[in-house]
């Protein structure tokens, strides 16, 4: 036995009512769109298209060429961008190498002005001067100085201490200072009454020579 289907006052089922409401909503939206379209058309018809004023050719002033305005949206090609990057890289490399050479040259000139004395307190003064010089260097200059002295660069303070120690040892280490040559042979010869460079005769030869001289007399 079939169950009775519920209907509303318009004798419509729920499914029929939904379909009717969908159609009404679609018609209302279409009507609103048509009204908006008509309103825009009326506004467009009332507008007047004005042609943009065109500029005449640029007149050259003196020897300067006329100014050319680049077109909008103009982009560089991939090859042009690569070429620009290569030029920038090569120029930066040249600048870096020249700056490093300039830093090394300045460091060498500065070290020439730091002289090691031989009086009391000269070693401490030389060490203080070297410390002041190396502390004034930048990181790149300090690394270049370590490379020149063949010293490993770890921390800045340690590198400065090693460089100062190396300079002090080079200036005051007795191994690096040449000792004067003493004329020991000349002193011995003057004591024995012989000429420098002559060989000393044994005592037996000297006595034989004296006996021969006495017999000849």
**Radius of gyration from the alpha-carbon trace, in angstroms:** 53 Å
Share in helix: 55-70%
Alpha-beta content class:
mainly alpha
| Relative strand content | under 5%
Assembly annotation: single chain
* Low-pLDDT runs: none
Which H/E pattern describes the elements? HHHHHHH
Mean pLDDT: 68
Count of discrete alpha- or pi-helical segments spanning 4 or more residues: 7
Query: What's the shape?
Result: elongated
- How far is the N terminus from the C terminus? 184 Å
For the largest beta-sheet, the strand count, sense and barrel status come to: none
Number of strands: 0
Biased composition (Basic and acidic residues): 7-20
Biased composition (Basic residues): 46-55
Region (Disordered): 1-20, 46-81, 175-217
Biased composition (Acidic residues): 206-217
Description:
With 217 residues, this protein is mainly alpha-helical. It has a domain of 70 residues. Helices cover 62% and strands 0% of the residues. It contains seven helices and no strands. Helix 3 runs antiparallel to helix 5 and helix 4 packs across helix 5. The radius of gyration is 53 Å and the shape is elongated. The N and C termini lie far apart (184 Å). The model has no long low-confidence stretch (mean pLDDT 68).
Question: Which key phrases capture this entry?
Answer:
217 residues, 62% helix, mainly alpha, elongated, 7 helices
Please give the structural blueprint.
Blueprint: H1 14-46, H2 78-113, H3 122-135, H4 139-149, H5 156-172, H6 184-192, H7 203-216
């Amino acid at each position: 036995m079939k169950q009775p289907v519920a209907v509303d006052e318009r004798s419509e089922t729920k499914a029929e009512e939904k379909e009717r409401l969908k159609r009404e909503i679609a018609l209302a939206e279409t009507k609103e769109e048509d009204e908006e379209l008509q309103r825009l058309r009326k506004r467009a018809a009332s507008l007047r298209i004005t042609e943009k004023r065109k500029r005449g050719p640029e007149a050259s002033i003196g020897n300067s060429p006329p100014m050319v305005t680049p077109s909008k949206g103009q982009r560089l090609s991939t090859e042009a961008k690569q070429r620009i990057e290569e030029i920038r890289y090569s120029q930066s490399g040249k600048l870096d190498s020249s700056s490093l050479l300039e830093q090394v040259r300045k460091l060498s000139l500065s070290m020439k002005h730091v002289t090691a004395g031989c009086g009391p307190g000269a070693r401490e003064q030389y060490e203080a001067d070297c410390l002041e010089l190396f502390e004034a260097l930048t990181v790149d200059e300090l690394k270049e100085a370590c490379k020149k002295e063949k010293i490993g660069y770890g921390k800045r303070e340690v590198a400065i201490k090693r460089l100062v120690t190396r300079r002090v040892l080079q200036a005051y280490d007795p191994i690096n200072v040449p000792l004067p040559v003493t004329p020991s042979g000349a002193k011995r010869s003057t004591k024995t009454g012989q000429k420098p460079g002559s060989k000393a005769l044994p005592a037996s030869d000297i006595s034989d020579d004296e006996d021969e001289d006495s017999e000849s007399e």
